[in-house]
Write a structure and sequence with these properties.
Blueprint lengths: L1 H6 L18 H21 L6
Length: about 50
């Protein structure tokens, strides 16, 4: 990977780099919370600790 970055002159000039910071948005937080809630629900519904 370092060789590829060197070949493209990555970081040689401030305006040529393709890196930029992506802000953490509210929708990212909502997605994480919903993902954790869905994962917990699936675990609770399918885990075999509940008596039949």
């Amino acid at each position: 990977m370092a060789l590829a970055m060197d070949a493209r002159a990555f970081g040689a000039y401030p305006t040529r780099t393709e890196r930029y910071q992506v802000p953490f948005r509210v929708r990212d937080t909502v997605f994480i919370v919903l993902f954790i809630a869905a994962s917990a629900a699936i675990l609770v519904l399918t885990f075999p600790w509940q008596p039949s």
